[in-house]
Amino acid sequence: MKQRLHVLLQSYPLWVTLTLLPTVGAAAAWLYHIYMAAIPLTLFALYALRRQIRLHRQYARKVLFLLDAIGNDDYSVRFSESGLPETDRLVHRALNRMTQILGQAKNETVQREKYYELILNCVNTGIVVLNDRGDVCQKNNEVLRLLGMEILTHVDQLARVDARLPELLARCRPGDKLQTTFTNERGTANLSIRVSGITIRGEALRIVALNDINHELDEKEIDSWMRLTRVLTHEIMNSVTPITSLSDTLLTRMDEKDELRQGLQTISNTGKGLLAFVENYRRFTHIPTPVPTLFYVKGFIQRMVQLARHRFPDTQADFRIDIRPDDLILHADEHLVAQVMTNLLANALQALGTRTDGRISIRAYCDESEAVLIEVANNGPAIPPEVAAHIFIPFFTTKENGSGIGLSISRQIMRLSGGSLAYLPGKETVFVLKFD
Predict the structure, then answer these.
(1) CA atoms within 13 A on the CB side of 257
(2) What is the pLDDT of residues 119-174, one digit of tens each?
(3) 321, 341 contact by CB (below 8 A)
(4) CB neighbourhood size of 104 (10 A)
(5) Element (H, E) at 341
(6) What is the DSSP string of 342-355?
(7) What angle separates helix 334-352 from helix 297-311, to the nearest 10 degrees?
(8) 294-337 pLDDT, tens per residue?
(9) Strand order in the sheet with 318-323
């Protein structure tokens, strides 16, 4: 190796060797200084890195603290923005701004939910939202009113209304159109059920809409009976009127002692009686248009009771009147409502008969929807279920001399007045007039 180096040095001129030596020395010195200068730079870099890690952890703790507060719906967290270094001040300002934005978004969401809830509670359709486990995610006041419940959190609670309802709603699927009937203390309810579906945050929900179609069914039934009554009265009067007219004409030409006269007299009287009978039924299809006015319910009820006592002086019924509030006002046709009350009180007094412990209770009040309700109840014999199903059918009666149109006309009057008349089954006979 030494021989090779000696040969190499001999092969180059001396001036080349002298020139390279200072250069090599300078390079070595430069590398030495670089190495010595790198030590403090490395220490400074390590210090800066450690400080950045500490600041990172500090900021991370603040972010986590903020997220925990927001997770607990606490948007009052604020970080100081004064007396701090510029970097900390900027970070705190950004976190405060984030809290403000999220708080505004939360408030807007809450207001939107209240808005939608208010809309749901204003519609006349019962709405209940169910998941696949049968939990009630949302509902409105109308569905509670239709079902006669105060609390509804799971579909199984519907068994208290009707044993079939939980299974019916548990099996229903989006697109189904169902109908069900159940009876509670307010009477028989006919519900139309429509089901639609929606997926929120990956969870499948069913929106069940319930409508009480009793009113629609009553209207169709009443319209059918009215058309039938018009046809029957028209045909009967067209047939009987010429008979009675001809009988009266022949009677004027016959001797008082003639036997044919007696027969004609019988025909005439029978025809006139039949015409009066038919004319009585015609009232069912010719109810005048209501002319509503404002009147106090208490004074009106008192007048109806006095009239009922006058019509049935032999009855010993105890009338109990409860009007709340005392100055309750009703907007309806007083004369037509008086006809309904007259029919109901007459039926109640006839049901009590000669009982010495007979009692008729009349209660008037406003419900949660500000509708006026008047209940007429008596402690007479309960109406059998097989009879109660037909009491509003025209011409149906269980009385020996009854016409069978009193309750039919009363329901028709309430329908034309924008209200309803219902029978509530129970130990007592209770009829409810509702004015929406």
Answers:
(1) 0
(2) 777 777 888 888 888 898 888 888 888 888 888 888 888 888 888 888 888 888 88
(3) no
(4) 11
(5) helix 334-352
(6) HHHHHHHHHHHTT-
(7) 50
(8) 999 999 999 999 988 888 888 778 899 999 999 999 999 999 89
(9) 318-323, 359-366, 372-378, 429-435, 419-424
Instruction: Find the angle CA(94)-CA(97)-CA(99) to the nearest 5 degrees.
Output: 110
**Highest mean pLDDT: which of 1-10, 304-313, 384-393?**
304-313
How many angstroms separate the Cα of 160 from the Cα of each of 57, 153, 157, 188, 279?
Answer: 57, 13, 6, 15, 47
What is the Cα 208 distance to its own chain's centre?
11
Q: Which tens digit of pLDDT belongs to each residue from 212-224?
A: 766 554 555 556 5
Helix (H) and strand (E) counts in the chain: 11, 12
Q: What's the alpha-carbon Rg for the chain, to the nearest Å?
A: 46
Question: For residues 129 and 205, is the Cβ–Cβ distance under 8 A?
Answer: yes
Percent helix / strand / coil, the chain, rounded to 5: 55, 20, 25
Q: What angle do CA 128, 419, 185 make, to 5 degrees?
A: 55
Distance CA 359, CA 245 (A): 49
Q: How far is CA 218 from CA 225, 320, 343, 368, 393, in A?
A: 10, 31, 19, 24, 10
Assessment of whether the complete model's pTM goes beyond 0.85: no
Amino acid of residue 196 = S
What's the distance, Cα to Cα, between the start and end of the chain in Å?
A: 120
* Distances 293 to 79, 290, 303, 334, 411 between C-alpha atoms, Å: 65, 9, 17, 7, 19
Report which secondary-structure segment, H or E, holds 283.
Answer: none
CA-based nearest residue to 298, from 306, 286, 290: 306
Listed in sequence order, the residues at least 6 apart from 398 whose beta carbon sits closer than 8 Å to its beta carbon are: 387
105 is written with which tokens? 């978004």
pLDDT at position 400: 62
Residue 325, preceding peptide bond in cis (omega within 30° of 0): yes
What local confidence, expressed as pLDDT, does residue 224 receive?
59
Is residue 79 exposed (0-12), middle (13-18) or buried (19+ Cβ within 10 Å)?
Answer: middle
Phi, then psi, of 392 in degrees rounded to 5: -95, 5
CA-closest candidate to residue 413, choices 346, 335, 340, 304: 340
Nearest CA-CA partner of 128 in 164, 153, 162: 153
CA gap 94, 90 in Å, rounded:
6
